[in-house]
Write the C-alpha cells for this entry.
Amino acid sequence: MSTDTRDRSFVSAEEVARLAGVSRSAVSRTFTEGASVSDATRKKVLHAADMLGYHVNHLARGLSHERSNIVGIVVSDIPTPYQARMLDEMTRQLQTIGKVGMVINTTGDAGSVANALRQTLNFRADGVIVLSGTPDASLIASCVANGQRVILINRSDHIEGPVNVAVENAENAREAYLMLRRAGCQRLAVVSSTAGTPSLMAREEAFTAAATQDGMSIPVIKAGPTGYAAGAEAARQLFSRSAAPDGIFCVTDLLALGCMDAVRHSFGLSVPQDVSIVGFDDIEQAGWDSYALTTFRQPIDEMVEHIVQLLSQTEPGEWAQTIAPFKPVPIWRRSVLPRPAA
C-alpha cells in the first residue's frame, strides 16, 4: 500500500487481511474478545495490523450491534469546581468499563439541554447522564423509547423513565440551620442562586422552613448565578443593612467563598468571630487554610460508581425510578464558632 493512501484514510480490516493472507472474517475474530481463531492466524493478523498501524473502529462495530459504547454527559458550568470534579470522576470511571464519555457543554437552559439530548440520540449513545438543566418529559420519553438509558443527577423531577441519582439536600440544610443555632447565631440569612435548580431550591427551602418553625424570618439573597461573584455581591447586600446577620448558610461552597471574602475584605469582619458561614459541596478550595469552610461533602465517588454500575449492565431491566438519596457528610472546619458553653 502506498504512503499516499495511508495518509488519506484509516487502514481497513480488508488491508490487514490481504497483508496477513487471511480472510476478512479472520481479522474480525482476532479483534473480538472470545471469538474462535487459531494461534497461527492470530499471530499473522496482529503482525500485519502492527505493520499497517491498524486500529479497530469501535464506533462502527458498536453501531452494527446497536451499541455505540458512547455515554452522553450533558453539563454546564464546567469550570466550577463541583462540576469539574464530577466530570473528571465520571469520565475516568466510564473508561474502566469500556465506555467513552461524550461531553456536551450546554448553558443549562431547557432549549440547550434539549439540543444536547438530541445529539446523544443521533450518536446512538448507550446512555445519557444529565448533570445540568431540567429535560422536557417528552424528550426523555423519546430517549427511553429509542433504548437510551437516562440518568439525572440531583433532580427532583418526577419524569417517567429516567433514574434520578441525588443527595439528601433538605436533611442537610436543616442540619446547617442547627449548626448555626448551636453556635449561638441569632440573625440568620441564606445566600442562594438565581439558577433555581431543584437541588439548590431544596437546600434553600429546607433551611428557611427550619427557621420558620422556630419563629424566625430570614432573608434569602440571590445576587446572580451560582458562583463566587454572586456570593460576594450577596454579602455586600446583607452587610449594608442595619441588621446584618451573624450566621449565613450558602447553598454552595463557591457562593460561600465569595461571601466570606467580601465579609472580611469589604467590611473588615472576622469569620467566625463576627459571622459564622456554612457551605455545601466540599469543593477542594473549601479545605484551604484561608477559608477552612464548614460544609457538607457530597459523596461524588460513590454516586459515580453507582451510575457506572448501572451503565455496565447489559440490559437496564427494571431500574428504580428514583435512587435512595446519597447522604452528604458534615465537615466541621473553622468558619463556624464552636458550640458556646452552657
